[in-house]
Design brief:
Blueprint: E1 11-14, E2 17-20, E3 23-27, E4 30-36, E5 39-42, H1 53-58, E6 62-66, E7 70-75, E8 79-84, E9 93-96, E10 99-101, H2 106-117, E11 131-132
Amino acid sequence: MEATELRLNNLVIYEDEIVPVIGMENKNNGLFVKIDPYTAVDQRKLKPIALTAEWFSKLGFKEVYRSSTRVRFDLPNFCRYDFDLSSNKILEGFLFFGNYIKCTHLHQLQNIYFTLTGEELKVAHDITQKEIVA
């Protein structure tokens, strides 16, 4: 994950906890990401959050289709996301006007959603406190 992929409010993993990006700053010729008002960490220490069925549930998506090769999640009145269960993963990603936009991590989906709607993708449960990754 590159720092250029991140924007404010993206959720990422730092030291096995889910944290929000609240700012960025240059320090000592390096890019540091603020994860709370007092902590800025080297962007290379952050990890992306993989998209899973659990995350789609937290984001308000509903599972609407399942077969031996595909699982589809819908965000009512907005979009679809398909998981391709086959080995080639051709039909996987954010479905937009019949085309798949590859995104496998939460911050990528957050960015796509924001770009298309101008709004943040809301997480259904409170994640303002640091959450431990299971």
